[in-house]
Amino acid sequence: MASARILSMSTAELEKAVLHLPLQERAHLAQRLLESLDRLPEAEARQLWFLEAQRRADEVDQDKVQLVSGDELEKQAQALFK
Question: How far apart are CA 18 and CA 35, in angstroms?
Fold first, then answer.
């Protein structure tokens, strides 16, 4: 009945339990979780990208981020590789 116990755990409780696993088991779990994100249904992936775009637009509207031109972005990227 371990699976029933896990299903009744809150995300915070599950996180706390998982963080107590040995390093190798945490790494394996992390890999499996990341892989699961690559298998999202198209509609769900589209919705997540929409929400991300909306979040970023809100940051621009609230002056939380500074926009730069494409040329400036290219200069900054090139400087990182020097």
Answer: 17
Report which residue type is found at 7: L
Q: Domain range spanning residue 51? A: 42-80
Asked if residue 50 and residue 75 are part of one domain, the reply reads: yes
Q: Which residue is it, tokens 């088991």?
A: 25
pLDDT digits (tens, 9 = 90+) for 29-82: 999 999 988 888 889 989 999 999 999 999 999 999 989 999 999 999 999 998
Between CA 81 and CA 3 the distance in angstroms is 48
* Region 11-30 average pLDDT: 94
Residues 48 and 73 grouped into a single domain = yes
**Same structural domain, 30 and 46:** no
CA distances for 73 relative to 17, 47, 49, 77, 79, angstroms: 42, 27, 22, 6, 10
